[in-house]
């Protein structure tokens, strides 16, 4: 599964050129995981690979992260988990709390006192997962890890681990021939 996922990402989601990342950093390649995470052929692979990645973390109830990047990853884990008889719920973290309705920043099941994993499609600085961690802690969730599909090896791991959260990733730059 992992090898097939790497092949899809390499062929369909890695772009070469001059890019400015969300962090403002410059890069000569860009990994656009939404090109594959929203693809019917690849989303199930992402779910399976990510379930294998997080399998050793005990008692996880839900997965999710900052909308938009984490949403298809969480959905893939939810569906592939259900196919395996596993019960992972999903949640979505908004950038800001809603200014209407119930004013929620975290959408989905009640996470108070629950063990959760924050997801990210690709990581650069670690800022997005840490924003999600902060929002989840405000609703009483216990964040037990950050799990990323593709790690860009640009410092996210160090920032997230310095914040006291374990960092897991499925695919690194070397796997994609980008190291």
TrEMBL record:
Under the GO molecular function aspect, what terms does this record hold?
A: magnesium ion binding; orotate phosphoribosyltransferase activity
One Pfam annotation, family name?
Pribosyltran
Q: Give the enzyme's main class according to its UniProt record, as a single word.
A: transferase
In this entry, which stretches build a coiled coil?
none
Q: Where does orotate bind?
A: 124, 152
Q: Which residues form the Phosphoribosyltransferase domain?
A: 84-159
Q: Which annotated residues bind 5-phospho-alpha-D-ribose 1-diphosphate?
A: 94-95, 98, 100, 120-128
Indicate the family of this protein.
Belongs to the purine/pyrimidine phosphoribosyltransferase family. PyrE subfamily.
Q: What is the annotated quaternary arrangement, including any partners?
A: Homodimer.
The protein's matches in HAMAP family, at most eight in alphabetical order, are given as:
PyrE (MF_01208)
Under the heading PANTHER family, the entry gives: OROTATE PHOSPHORIBOSYLTRANSFERASE, URIDINE 5'-MONOPHOSPHATE SYNTHASE
Name of the featured protein: Orotate phosphoribosyltransferase
Q: Taxonomic lineage per UniProt?
A: Bacteria, Bacillati, Actinomycetota, Actinomycetes, Micrococcales
Give the encoding gene's name. pyrE
């Amino acid at each position: 599964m992992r090898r097939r996922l790497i092949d899809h990402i390499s062929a369909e989601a890695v772009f070469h050129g001059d890019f400015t990342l969300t962090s403002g950093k410059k890069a000569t390649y860009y990994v656009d995981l939404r090109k594959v995470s929203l693809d019917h052929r690849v989303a199930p692979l992402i779910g399976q690979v990510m379930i294998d990645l997080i399998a050793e973390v005990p008692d996880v109830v839900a997965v999710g992260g900052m909308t938009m990047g984490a949403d298809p990853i969480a959905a893939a884990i939810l569906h592939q988990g259900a196919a395996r008889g596993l019960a992972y719920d999903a949640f979505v973290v908004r950038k800001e709390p809603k200014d209407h309705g119930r004013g929620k920043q975290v959408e989905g099941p009640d996470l108070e006192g629950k063990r959760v994993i924050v997801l990210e499609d690709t990581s650069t600085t670690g800022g997005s997962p840490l924003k999600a961690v902060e929002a989840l802690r405000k609703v009483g969730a216990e964040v037990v890890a950050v799990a990323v599909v593709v790690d860009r090896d640009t410092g996210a791991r160090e920032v997230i681990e310095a914040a006291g959260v374990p960092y897991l990733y499925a695919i690194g730059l070397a796997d994609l021939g980008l190291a």
